[in-house]
């Protein structure tokens, strides 16, 4: 394997990526006999670990008994998923459920719902979605437009719908100063000014990740940020859509990341961890007020052909039940705290690691040329890919992140079943890989 192994490839299967023959628990097994510790949980989707027979059996049974049924009809696996969601996961205020086939279409459905809701209330002028400067919300044209991700917009900027953008709360790089005590006021003022400049009557919703995913690398806002955002949205009649495609279903040590604060969104969006990587699926969970307003106006949510696919619902229901039975969210909180402490230990005083951050098992490091000025390495140095490549050569797979100026981010999102020896190894390998890629030790 070379550094190229970390690059995405197109056309499909024409690159030099590893060939994975089997996956089990925390590990991936390659065709050339190597075992890789999966510190990324795939694309940060794994929660119960790979190869669970209970989930595989449910998927097989559902495929045999009830292969495909049009999305709005009821099947045993769809009923099981709704039961699991309502019993263990969704707060009572977010039970208008819509099931999609992935994260991007779930985000796009949420954007449509917000615009339809405002139209149903007699405010068709509220058409804009505010989003944030560093963010990622999906691959469709509409979700690419609202993403703050320069690399993924390359060659598209001229066709993407303009939208109001506010600054992502980023304590390390707050313009007032690093972890400045007035950071929240700065970011909330920015939100209020943006709403006033655009005109509140033009804004349908604010769309944001409660804790940033890979674009910013597990950036956690100051504690009083989210309650402040919620108040401002309410004041201006703006819906709050939280993108928990990466953070949802236990990843940050709570069922949903918004539960680290005393707030509830109007629309919650999920994907990835909903079925733990066993099937493609996403979910949109709206408040009763949103649901009833749309229903009264006879506005519907359109399904994709493969939305709520029976096999995907079977996988999700079983994964959600297993996580509840085995108390894996609590485990994500506990192992996440240990992993963060271990990363802080191995990177204390490191010349190129500006910060270890995140919550639960969504963690990241930010790598810079100079920790005093936070100046990044030049893009041409390709630092993130080199770190990920050096770690792969040492048998651990990390998830590269970052965009624009914040380009060198390495994310971690292992399954919640990770044990203490694995997390110690993960941190040690990451240190070696960073040193190798930044030239602090011999090349790989
Ligand atoms: C925060 C966030 N939102 C949306 C998406 C898009 O989801 P999908 O790739 O399943 O379409 C992603 C995917 O990485 C994500 O991390």
Q: What is the end-to-end distance? A: 11 Å
User: How confident overall, as mean pLDDT?
Assistant: 95
CATH topology of the largest domain: Aspartate Aminotransferase, domain 2
The biggest sheet amounts to: 7 strands, mixed
Order of helices and strands: EEEHHHEHEHEHEHEEEHHHEEHEEEH
- Low-confidence parts, pLDDT < 50 over ≥5 residues? 1-6
Estimated structural class: alpha/beta
Kindly report the spatial arrangement of strands forming the biggest sheet. Answer: 4-10-9-8-7-5-6
What portion of residues belong to β-strands? 15-25%
Gyration radius (Cα, Å) is 21 Å
Individual helix count: 12
CATH homology-level superfamily of the largest domain: Type I PLP-dependent aspartate aminotransferase-like (Major domain)
General shape: globular
Our count of domains comes out at 2
Instruction: Just give the CATH class of the largest domain.
Output: Alpha Beta
How many beta-strand runs? 15
Q: Report the bound ligands by name, code or SMILES.
A: pyridoxal-5'-phosphate
- Based on the structure given, which CATH architecture of the largest domain is correct? 3-Layer(aba) Sandwich
Helix content: 25-40%
Give the key terms.
444 residues, Aspartate Aminotransferase, domain 1, 2 domains, 4-stranded mixed sheet, 15 strands, 35% helix, 16% strand, binds pyridoxal-5'-phosphate
């Amino acid at each position: 394997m070379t550094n190229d192994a970390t690059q995405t490839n197109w056309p499909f299967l024409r690159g030099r990526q590893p060939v994975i023959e089997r996956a089990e628990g925390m590990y991936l097994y390659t065709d050339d006999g190597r075992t890789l510790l999966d510190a990324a949980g795939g694309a940060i989707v794994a929660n119960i670990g790979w190869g669970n027979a209970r989930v595989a059996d449910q998927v097989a049974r559902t495929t045999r008994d009830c292969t495909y049924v049009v999305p709005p009809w009821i099947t045993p696996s769809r009923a099981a998923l709704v039961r699991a969601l309502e019993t263990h996961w969704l707060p009572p205020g977010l039970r208008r459920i819509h099931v999609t086939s992935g994260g991007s279409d779930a985000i796009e459905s949420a954007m449509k719902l917000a615009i339809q809701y405002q139209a149903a209330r007699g405010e068709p002028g509220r058409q804009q979605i505010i989003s944030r400067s560093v963010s990622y919300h999906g691959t469709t044209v509409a979700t690419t437009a609202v993403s703050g991700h320069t690399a993924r917009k390359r060659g598209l900027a001229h066709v993407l719908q303009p939208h109001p953008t506010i600054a992502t709360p980023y304590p390390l790089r707050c313009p007032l100063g690093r972890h400045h005590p007035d950071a929240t006021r700065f970011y909330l003022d920015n939100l209020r000014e943006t709403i006033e400049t655009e005109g509140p009557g033009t804004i349908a919703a604010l769309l944001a990740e409660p804790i940033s995913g890979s674009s910013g690398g597990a950036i956690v806002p100051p504690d009083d940020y989210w309650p402040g955002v919620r108040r401002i949205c309410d004041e201006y009649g703006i819906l709050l859509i939280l993108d928990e495609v990466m953070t949802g279903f236990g990843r940050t040590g709570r069922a949903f990341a918004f539960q680290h604060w005393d707030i509830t969104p109007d629309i919650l969006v999920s994907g990835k961890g909903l079925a733990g990587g066993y099937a493609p699926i996403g979910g949109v969970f709206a408040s009763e007020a949103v649901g009833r307003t749309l229903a009264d106006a006879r506005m519907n949510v359109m399904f994709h052909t493969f939305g709520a696919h029976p096999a995907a619902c079977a996988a999700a229901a079983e994964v959600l039940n297993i996580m509840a039975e085995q108390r894996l969210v609590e485990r994500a909180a506990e192992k996440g705290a240990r992993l963060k402490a271990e990363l802080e230990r191995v990177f204390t005083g490191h010349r190129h690691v500006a910060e270890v951050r995140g919550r639960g098992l969504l963690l990241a490091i930010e790598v810079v040329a100079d920790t005093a000025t936070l100046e990044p390495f030049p893009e041409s140095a390709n630092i993130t890919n080199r770190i990920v490549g050096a770690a792969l050569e040492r048998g651990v797979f990390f998830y590269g992140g970052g965009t624009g100026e914040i380009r060198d981010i390495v994310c971690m999102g292992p399954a919640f079943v990770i044990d203490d020896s694995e997390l110690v190894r993960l941190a040690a390998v990451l240190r070696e890989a960073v040193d190798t890629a930044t030239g602090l030790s011999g090349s790989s």
